[in-house]
Design brief:
Elements lengths: L1 E4 L1 H9 L4 H7 L7 E4 L1 H11 L10 H13 L2 E2 L13 H12 L4 E3 L15 E3 L1 H8 L2
Parallel strand pairs: 1-2, 1-4, 2-3, 4-5
Helix pairs in contact: 1-2, 1-3, 2-6, 3-4
């Protein structure tokens, strides 16, 4: 099952070992889903994760190791057609473009309202809690 994980979900998993975001990321070894990323989306993950004080309990090296592992479990997508501007936030368009290109079934985000209209592409937008319930994680 192809999905795209929004930056806010990944950051939430890095900040706390509690909650659905962490469970979602910890399920990567079970291969219950395949996360899809593009280079620009991955660079956003890295940029946000390394913001001063955002994920204070992890070192830069820890973040690099986690992101490297995440990338090893992901399908890297090349984006040839941009859907911009489609959503209000251009950074959300990064997520949508990967989801469309990878034919993902889900976008997993805390900001479901920001992705209105994605159902036109056959993509369901869900929270981490909803996704782990759907997949039985």
């Amino acid at each position: 099952m192809n999905i795209v994980i929004d930056t806010n979900v990944l950051i939430s998993a890095l900040k706390s070992k509690r909650g659905a975001s962490y469970k979602l990321i910890m399920a990567l070894p079970k291969e219950l889903y395949t996360p899809n990323v593009s280079v620009p989306l991955f660079l956003e993950y890295e940029s946000v994760a390394k913001r001063q004080g955002l994920v204070s309990k992890l070192s830069s090296q820890d973040i690099d190791s986690i992101l490297e592992y995440f990338l090893s479990k992901s399908s890297i997508r090349k984006i040839f057609f941009l859907w911009r501007p489609y959503l209000k936030d251009p950074k959300d368009d990064l997520v949508l473009e990967v989801a469309v290109e990878s034919q993902s079934e889900y976008i997993v985000t805390f900001n479901t309202k920001d992705f209105k209209g994605c159902n036109q592409f056959g993509i369901t937008v869900v929270t981490p809690q909803e996704f782990i319930a759907i997949r039985g994680i």
